[in-house]
Each structure stands twice: as structure tokens, then as C-alpha cells.
Amino acid sequence: MPIRLSLGHIDVYDDRTATFAHQLGLTGVQFHTPNLLPGENGHWSLEELRALRERCDRDGLRIDGLENVPLAHFWKVQRGLPGRDEQIENYFRTIRNMAAVGIDMLGYNWLPTFVWRTDMDVAGRGGAKVTAFDLAEIGAGNALASYRLSPTEPLAEPISVDRMWANHQYFLDAVLPVAEEAGVRLALHPDDPPVDEPLGGAARIFNTPAALAAAHKQAKASPAWGLDFCLGSVSEMGGEDAVNEVIDTLGPVGAIAYVHFRDVQGTVPSFRECFLGEGNYNPARVIRRLHEVGFDGFMIDDHVPAVIGDPDTWMDISSDAYCSRGRAHALGYLQGVLNGLGLD
User: Fold this and answer.
1) Beta bridge partners of 28
2) Structurally, how many domains does the chain consist of?
């Protein structure tokens, strides 16, 4: 199967979102803690997953994957707290219910204090609104603290590097056998930002290409584990060299599950998001390299600049904000690259 584009990171799915996908010529969608999956009993139920699947079927759209169960389902697992075994049991239910309705991809992150930014209103190209991170400014706190997936419960104590690795191993050892049996693949998102310093008291461990390869080793090369290859997060680690290292290490062994396509200018400790084609890597070279190592999964649009006339494309999760000029530009750019490389 050739590399394909999917309309991704959908928070709110409605008629407008479905129409947007069709107008852009896309046939698949990927969801990010979507509004149609409240998961009120600690897991995504069979009934709500079936309803989402049937809704997308009626709209003529394939579900390529889900990403990030609600924070309330997962925070004790990430932090290694009492109660994590109950949350893992509920995670089993989510995996099995996904399999029952034919959804086979579930992305997750290992960020107890979630994504950090220090500025949500930086002027990008032509004055487009983008976000930025500067390690020197973290004393002021996370500018994303009010985002719906950022935790409101502070850490009871700092979480060390060793404990973060141990917590991740505990999670994988528990869930991968269930995922393998169900035929659902789990996909790890790299740290964003990928800094060495703890943020909000929690160490960051998936912050280098070598660390992502170590995660693959933790999973014992299970076919039920892969990387949610967020190009922006890896670009933050070291630009195109870091991106190439991940492709060359995990691509040939089939460990890249799917791709978040975005980029930044600069690398840690300081960077800002940007339009595709003006960041650290060349998008066409990256797609060609993915193809050459045998990647044949899907790619999604990710964070996009808010261009003139767009609402805030980060903090506003409404479909009005989501179906933006900035997102249409990113997807059109990627369609053009795929076409130009003969990969569409």
C-alpha cells in the first residue's frame, strides 16, 4: 500500500469536519481524544466506538486510528501510582473494544506533564500565529497549562528518569500481549519538547533518536508496538539528522506506525513551529527516505500555523477552528510533494 494522507488529530467530529476531509480529497480520518468518545466509565466502550465507526462509515471515511485516551484513563499509569492496574485493565477493555469494531491503531504519549510551550502567540511567516518553546523561560510555567489534556493534578513528588523507564516497561509488559491478541497496534509519541530537564517535575525520557530505539527494545520488537513518528518532535531533537536517524533505525524493521507531519525552526533548548518547507528538514527528502525504508502507513497533518482569518488552531478545538486555512495549506503541500515524488 502506498503512503497515504489522513485528516488527523481530530478533536471534534461533525458534518463540517467530514465535509472538510472530502473537499481536500481525503478518504481517512484519525482522532485525538475525540468528543464522540467520552469514555465515562474509565474506558472507551464498545457502544461509543461502534457509533463512531458507523458515523464515519456513513460519511464515507475510513478510521485510520485513535490517539490519546482521556487523561483520566491514563494518568496513574504514566506516574506509576496506586490504581494504575485498574487503569490498565480498562485500557485492555479499550483495546478489545477497538478491535471489535475494526479500529487497529491506538497512539499514546508518555508525558505525565504533557506537552509544554512557553509562548502560544509568536509571529511566524507573514505574521501567522505559531507556538514556541524556550527552556530559559520555563520558570513562568507551561503556556499550555489550560489545554484539555494538560494535567490539573500536580505531581506528589518528582518522577526520575529511572522511574519513568520502569513505568513504561510495566505498561508495555501488561498491554502488549493483549494488543497482540486483539490485533491492535500501540504507537508511542516522542517527547515534546524533547529536553533533558524535567518539566513540571517529571523527567523526559523519549527525547533522542536513541531513546526511541530503546523503546522498541523495551517492546521486545512486538508487532503490536510502533512509533507515532512526530516529525516535529524529532526535528526539535536535532533537525533533519535526527529525523533521518529515526527513519534509518526504526523504518527498516517496520517500527514506524504512522507519521505526524509538522516542523519547527531551531532545536532544543529553543524552537518555534512553522510552515512546512521553512523548517529544519526538507519534507520531500523525508518522504522519499520513508518510502525507501519501506514505510507504507499513513501520515497526518499536525500542528499548523493560524493564518489570516483562522481562529487559534491550538487551543480552540472546535470544528470551525480545526477546518482552517493553515491546515488546508499543510495538507495541500503534502499532497503536492507526494504527487511530485510519484507516491500518491
Assistant:
1) 62
2) 1
Q: What is the domain extent for residue 130?
A: 4-340
**Residue 16: in which H helix or E strand, if any?**
helix 15-23
- Bond from prior residue into 193 cis (ω within 30 degrees of 0): yes
The three cell numbers of residue 298 are 499513513
Is residue 301 within 8 A of residue 7, CB to CB? The reply is: yes
Sequence-separated (6 or more) residues with CB below 8 Å from residue 23: none
Closest CA to 90 of 55, 46, 54, 50: 46
154 upstream amide cis, omega within 30 of 0? no
Which pLDDT band, with edges at 50, 70 and 90, does 343 fall under?
A: very high
Give the C-alpha distances (Å, rounded to integers) separating 231 from 26, 161, 292: 21, 23, 17
Distance from chain centroid for Cα 287: 18
Q: Averaged over 184-191, what is the pLDDT?
A: 98
| Structure-block grid coordinates of residue 144 | 499550555
Q: What is the CA radius of gyration of the chain?
A: 19
Q: What is the dihedral of CA 142, 147, 152, 156, to 10 degrees?
A: -40
- How are beta strands 256-261 and 298-301 bridged, if at all? parallel
pLDDT tens digits along 61-99 = 999 999 999 999 999 999 999 999 999 999 999 999 999
- pTM of the full structure: 0.97
**Residue 47, number of CB atoms within 10 A of its CB:** 10
**How does the average pLDDT of the chain come out, rounded?**
97
Return d(Cα 2, Cα 341) in angstroms, integer.
12
Distance CA 203, CA 271 (A): 20
- Helix residue spans in the chain (DSSP H): 15-23, 46-58, 75-79, 84-100, 161-182, 209-218, 231-250, 283-292, 319-322, 325-340
Cell of 19: 465535509
Mean pLDDT of 324-334: 97
CATH code for the domain of 110:
3.20.20.150
Q: How far is it, in rounded angstroms, from Cα 126 to Cα 307?
A: 8
pLDDT of residue 1: 66
Separation CA 292–CA 225 (nearest Å) = 21
Taking only the tens place, the pLDDT of each residue in 20-61 is: 999 999 999 999 999 999 999 999 999 999 999 999 999 999
Cell of 105: 491503531
